[in-house]
Specification:
Length: 191
């Protein structure tokens, strides 16, 4: 079941990319981190202790919420649980969106439009792109593609696999454990 779920999430990502809406689980995680961080700072916990509390609370609340919603969906109907799991895993992947953002850089470079390539690149990197030559733009695009491929696609898949294997070895529910591992990674990555 986990293999089919992963394949379906991958296909959804390729077809639709990472949806941009305010209730996206990873965006909500980012907002939750902001709320927690402000609260911890108000109590003077901005150092190492605050960082640990922030990490533990972020991951803990995300996993608890996932498990509660997963159980509720499964109680409603087994297919509701499967759809919820698909939605969660699909939300953890961001390969197609990454390709969509980097593709304009390549097209503009191929067309010889260096200013357009710099502008397209500036939408996906945090660095100043105005002084980059053709090779610099290309290198920066490849670097961001590689970095975000690992963060937005390869790592979530690794954690799904690791969580699934751990679940099988420990006799835990495979899909829920695998998705908890992927969500924990995404929370840590967002932190």
């Amino acid at each position: 079941e986990l293999a089919l779920l992963t394949l379906a999430a991958f296909v959804l990502d390729l077809l639709f990319g990472d949806p941009a809406y305010s209730l996206h689980p990873i965006r909500l995680t980012g907002r939750w981190i902001d709320v927690l961080e402000k609260g911890l700072r108000r109590f003077g916990l901005a150092g190492i202790a605050g960082g640990w509390l922030l990490a533990i609370t972020t991951v803990g609340t995300l996993l608890a919420l996932f498990l509660i919603l997963s159980a509720a969906a499964e109680r409603l109907h087994p297919w509701a649980g499967r759809v919820f799991h698909l939605y969660v895993l699909y939300s953890c992947l961001a390969l197609e969106d990454l390709i969509r953002h980097v593709r304009p850089v390549a097209h503009r470079l191929k067309a010889g439009d260096l200013p357009g390539a710099r502008l397209a690149l500036s939408r996906v990197v945090g660095r100043d792109t105005t002084a980059l030559d053709r090779w610099g733009v290309g290198r920066a695009a490849v670097e961001t593609l590689a970095e975000n491929f690992v963060d937005g696609f390869l790592s979530p898949l690794f954690w799904v696999l690791a969580g699934g294997i751990a679940a099988e070895l420990l006799g835990l529910p495979t899909v829920a454990t695998a998705l908890c591992a992927a969500l924990a990674f995404k929370a840590a990555s967002t932190l």
